[in-house]
Specification:
The chain is an alpha+beta fold. Helix content is about 20%, strand content about 30%. Strands 12, 13, 17, 18, 19, 20, 21, 22, 23 and 24 form a 10-stranded mixed sheet that branches. Strands 5-9-8-7-6 form a 5-stranded mixed sheet, covered by helices on one side. A 4-stranded antiparallel sheet has the order 28-27-30-31, with no helix packed on it.
């Protein structure tokens, strides 16, 4: 619900404290990370994470007054901000402009500055977004996205600023919100998980950066005559009928005429594999996929796809998984598919390193898209399927020629069985994609494929061209998630896959590394490590998860990125969690993998134990450092 009304701001009272620009600037500089986080949380998630980050910084930086101004809002109720009218003033400006940014544009009035994309800051060639959190943070972000702007502001002011409802009312009224009572009531319906607001998931000052298009280059003429000739050629191409760039569709003007580049862009030189080649080949990867689809002989479509790959125009939507170069092919690529899917024409190409998917509308080339995925070294299960199309929350796959059956399975419900899917010329029927789902995580649909040898594998869509292969077992000896035991082991941790979206994930393995008897006769808890390996060979994500007896979901106890723990190179892991028993007692629980001889805790909690398990009585909120000693004398630290 984004149709809130933001009224004119109330007039200042003569008794309000006066804030000059120096005082406001001092407050803004001192509390800048907090103010940017506040703006990020109040802004509508529909803006997308990259624009939310840039808009949050822009709104905060524009919160300074031009001269002296009145501050009529209750100051923040925490140490360091008490009684500071400068902070109260800039906080009000941030809340007001963040609410205005969520208003729909109207043809009857000029848009406010906050409703438009920020002029500054600007980062060209990069997409910026906060670090991903766990399943709890993801669920909270989805709940906040369902709230109206004022209700989000209520939730954030309560949780982040620790303001009582009376002060929240005054802040919203000063920000120009008409329906304050409705906003308070709406926010009451969202669970009060305020501690999650301080998570890195919502920190727009600690960012990841990913490239948009690394290989696009701007060519400059060496002489005025050459530049004039290029302008004339571009003008002639733009004047051609058809609404595109002539025979190359949405591609930018050509800038290279060398023979190798021209060969790579010649649709007549595309590599086409025979339909039965895979049956006699010693390889089982994309290199033995045959060309399929009803448009494999459409030379004009193939030419446009190759031209856009080499030089995408400004109107082309380009995306690439992390670590994937997006430049043109070095030589003629292999054609995997060219055909009509729903309302689009789709071409899928492979150059030995990458999968490139080109898609254009049936009725022209405007709105063309180009997606890249790195697949070097893909064998067997990693080359079982490629995303062919996404529409209406569903995903359709093109499967390998050795895939004989496909089915849909809810990873959270192992007892429900698999639902068969139709496969026509390697194309599956639509599957509801968890990568595009919104709201609470109540299911996680995966693709179950069975090959010509009878081997069954599970693949999960994580928002990329190639689905991630799911496995189970101790690192170094993993196995398929095909049996009932492995499927039940994965079920409580399926939603944690949401934290691995769009990271270029190749495989995800789940491994129960310990089982721990709980104090106060509370049963036994499971410790499970999920590790996502990436195509680029870096940025691996590791989650240590803790599940109490009968728990529907596992809770993320610790996480790390780019570490060898819980992997084939280092199959050891140590993690801890604060846990409250049914009797009301708090404990620090820690568990290590097999081969851990001793575990100790220092800092807020002091304790040690022989073996791989530790349970120490403590109190809520303490922090501790964990250390483990392996049976060969090696010391390991707790995952964090």
């Amino acid at each position: 619900m984004q149709s809130q009304d933001v009224a004119k701001r109330p007039a200042a009272s003569p008794t309000d404290p006066v804030v000059d620009v120096e005082q406001a600037e001092a407050a803004l500089v001192e509390h800048y990370p907090r103010l940017v986080r506040l703006a990020y949380l109040v802004l509508p998630p529909s803006l997308g994470r990259n624009r939310r980050v840039l808009t949050a910084h822009a709104l905060t930086q524009r919160a300074l007054p031009r001269g002296r101004a009145s501050a009529s809002v209750i100051p923040a109720q925490s140490t360091g901000r008490d009684g500071d009218p400068g902070y109260a003033f800039v906080r009000l400006r941030v809340v007001r402009t963040a609410l205005e940014a969520g208003l729909p544009l109207s043809f009857r009035a000029w848009p406010k500055r906050s409703q438009l994309p920020p002029l500054l800051p600007q980062v060209r060639g990069l997409r910026l977004f906060p670090r991903s959190g766990g399943a709890d943070e993801l669920a909270l972000d989805q709940r906040l996205s369902a709230l109206s702007g004022p209700a989000r502001a209520v939730y954030v002011l309560r949780g982040l600023e620790k303001l009582p409802d009376g002060d929240v009312r005054r802040v919203l009224a000063a920000a120009g919100v008409d329906e304050v009572d409705e906003a308070l009531s709406e926010a009451d319906e969202t669970p009060a998980q305020y501690e999650l607001l301080n998570s890195p998931e919502f920190d727009p000052c600690s960012l990841h950066a990913r490239p948009t298009d690394l290989m696009r280059r701007r060519q400059h003429g060496k002489a005025a005559l050459a530049a004039a000739a290029a302008v004339a050629v571009c003008g002639a191409l733009l004047a051609m009928p058809g609404g595109g760039w002539g025979p190359d569709g949405a591609a930018a003007p050509a800038y290279a005429q060398n023979p190798a580049s021209q060969a790579a862009l010649n649709p007549g030189k595309l590599i086409r594999i025979a339909p039965t080649a895979w049956q006699s080949s010693a390889r089982e990867d994309f290199s033995v996929w045959p060309a399929r689809g009803d448009l494999t002989e459409d030379t004009a479509l193939l030419r446009r796809a190759l031209a856009v790959w080499a030089r995408p125009g400004e109107s082309v939507q380009v995306s690439a998984t992390p670590g994937t170069p997006s430049g043109g092919p070095a030589g003629p690529p292999q054609l995997l598919y060219a055909g009509t899917v729903d309302n689009a024409r789709v071409v899928i190409l492979y150059d030995g390193l990458r999968i490139a998917r080109y898609a254009e509308p049936k009725d022209g080339t405007k709105g063309a898209a180009l997606d890249f995925a790195r697949v070097d070294g893909a064998t067997g299960s990693e080359s079982d399927a490629v995303v062919l199309d996404r529409a209406d929350g569903n995903v359709r796959y093109l499967t390998a020629p050795w895939v004989k059956k496909a089915a849909e399975r809810d990873l959270q419900k192992p007892n429900a069985g698999a639902l068969p899917m139709t496969v026509t010329d390697g194309i599956t029927s639509p599957l509801a994609s968890p990568a595009q789902a919104t709201g609470a995580c109540t299911s996680w649909n995966v693709l179950q494929l069975t090959d010509d040898t009878g081997t069954t594998r599970l693949m999960s869509d994580l928002g990329e061209l190639v689905p991630a292969h799911l496995t189970a077992g101790r690192p170094g000896s993993v196995h398929e998630v095909s049996g009932a035991a492995a499927q039940h082991a994965w079920a409580p941790f399926a939603c944690s896959l949401g934290a691995m979206r769009s990271l270029g994930v190749r495989t995800v393995n789940a491994w129960q590394f310990a089982q721990q008897p709980l104090p106060d006769a509370s049963g036994a808890a499971d410790w499970v490590c999920t590790r996502a390996e990436t195509w680029q060979g870096g940025g691996e994500r590791v989650l240590a998860q803790f599940r109490t007896p009968g728990g529907t979901y596992g809770a993320v106890a610790a996480k790390a990125q780019g570490v060898p723990a819980c992997g084939a190179r280092d199959p050891h892991v140590l993690a801890g969690v604060l846990w409250k028993s049914a009797a009301g007692h708090w404990y620090l629980l820690a568990a290590g993998s097999k081969g851990t001889e001793a575990v100790s805790a220092t800092g807020g909690v002091n304790g040690s134990a022989r073996g791989a398990l530790l349970a120490v009585k403590t109190k809520q909120g303490v922090q501790a450092e964990l250390k483990g000693i392996l049976d060969d004398g090696t010391t390991i630290a707790g995952l964090r």
